[in-house]
Design goal:
The structure is a homodimer of 258-residue chains.
Chain A lengths: L1 H20 L1 H22 L7 H14 L2 H4 L5 H18 L6 H28 L1 H25 L3 E3 L3 E5 H22 L4 H28 L15 H5 L2 H10 L4
Antiparallel strand pairs in A: 1-2
Family (chains A, B): Belongs to the CDS family.
Subcellular location (chains A, B): Cell membrane
Keywords (chains A, B): Cell membrane, Lipid biosynthesis, Lipid metabolism, Membrane, Nucleotidyltransferase, Phospholipid biosynthesis, Phospholipid metabolism, Transferase, Transmembrane, Transmembrane helix
Chain lengths: 258, 258
């Protein structure tokens, strides 16, 4: 527990510092974390990074990560997807089927899952600025905190035991509550959101964050893995730590709430 | 053999008739064939079409199939991809992991593979017209024919035995030869291509067509299936019959040869 708290604080503080710095620092961090998460995700399915298909997936992930302003008038992302699909299919042939169709499908999906997630994590900081990015991060963390303490104190009814046996409905609601409170506090401080906007955004953050958490649990359960990695003592891997945020940011953009 | 020849001629004639008709007829045929191919491809991996994830993949495939002119100013394909990825991840959670990460990855990849292939099959007819579409189809079929007869007569050196044990290098070169001859003939008849253009296009068609064939063989070998389906007696499934064309058309567009 002590390791867990210390690592958590150090990780959180380091992350926030780079969010604050923004610019190239934050973009570089996003690329770095996405690469680690990619490594964790493919290793869970016994795909090696240092292999033709592992590296091809990584390059595609990086293409997705580039900020939108780099892409404009540069190259169609559609063509990139298409080239990626063809290259991967070609690798199955060139490798004489050592690389199977299911492997390349896993890579494509993983690149998209992480690509969208981390891309919008970066895009929000660039386009929407520091304040709202921090508010989203805090609100997501508030979800975890609220769910943990309320679940511990009052948790009775299992939320989704097939995938995550320890989560309870009470905890989940506690998470939603604390996330919404955080977002409303933010709206008071900055005056940039109305209360109803803050309420809606807080709700979306908390619900999509919890679903993101369940999604990652589902993946790990399928692959019989407990933690995605071990880079953060007591917290598992990078993916375990960011599973909520990489769903929260894209969903907020998709729903055009930002 | 007799069944095979008769089915082959009927299928070929029917296909060419609809290519000739063009417009809504050809687009409808493309949607129909793509749907059959999708059904074959997911069934090979024991995914049911009439299931949430099977249907979600199909809807996404159809989105990719729509001609470019329908999309313009309508909806970003990027957003569609993204929504599809999220929906599929959500289905893993909602199904309590009966639908696994590897299944949804398989669906995403399959939708892209068929989506791009059939989309460009349609797009070529719309944008580039009847003559060149027919030339490409004939040149692809010429590849098969040349490979079959030259391989039968002079085939000695195995081409890629790990994936397709009966193919020979001699046959493959015979396929390239007949495809290029077909394209050059076309350039004489229509006067729309220079000889060197015809030579290059014929070469690209034949090589990418043969690779497309190997790709589909690789998929089937991975999944321990002999034919993708049995809709065409003696010829296997729709995917077996169109595996070359759904790679040829996109590659020609990607290389900006059309």
């Amino acid at each position: 527990m002590k390791t867990r708290v210390i690592t958590g604080i150090l990780w959180g503080a380091g992350f926030l510092l780079v969010v604050y710095l923004g610019g190239i620092w934050y973009t570089a961090l996003v690329f770095f974390l996405a690469t680690l998460a990619y490594y964790e995700l493919i290793r869970m399915n016994h795909i090696r990074l240092m292999d033709w298909h592992g590296l091809t997936g990584l390059v595609f992930l990086w293409l997705l990560l580039f900020p939108n302003l780099v892409w404009e008038g540069n190259m169609l992302r559609g063509d990139a997807v298409f080239l990626f699909v063809l290259l991967l299919l070609f690798i199955t042939v060139a490798s004489k089927n050592r690389v199977e169709y299911q492997h390349i499908a896993y890579l494509l999906f993983s690149s998209f899952y992480l690509g969208f997630g981390f891309h919008f994590m970066n895009e929000t900081r660039i386009v929407n600025g520091l304040a709202i990015t921090l508010a989203i991060v805090f609100s997501t963390w508030a979800t975890d905190t609220g769910a943990y303490f309320v679940g511990k104190a009052r948790g009775k009814t299992k939320l989704w035991p097939a995938i995550s046996p320890n989560k309870t409905i009470e905890g989940s609601l506690g998470g939603v509550f604390l996330a919404v409170v955080t977002m409303i506090l933010f709206s008071f401080i900055t005056d940039s959101l109305t209360i109803s906007q803050a309420l809606l955004i807080g709700l979306v953050i908390s619900v999509s964050g919890q679903i993101g958490d369940l999604m990652e649990s589902a993946i790990k359960r399928t692959l019989n893995v407990k933690d995605s990695g071990s880079i953060l003592p007591g917290h598992g891997g990078v993916l375990d730590r960011l599973d909520s945020l990489i769903v929260v940011f894209p969903v907020l953009h998709l729903l055009q709430l930002l």
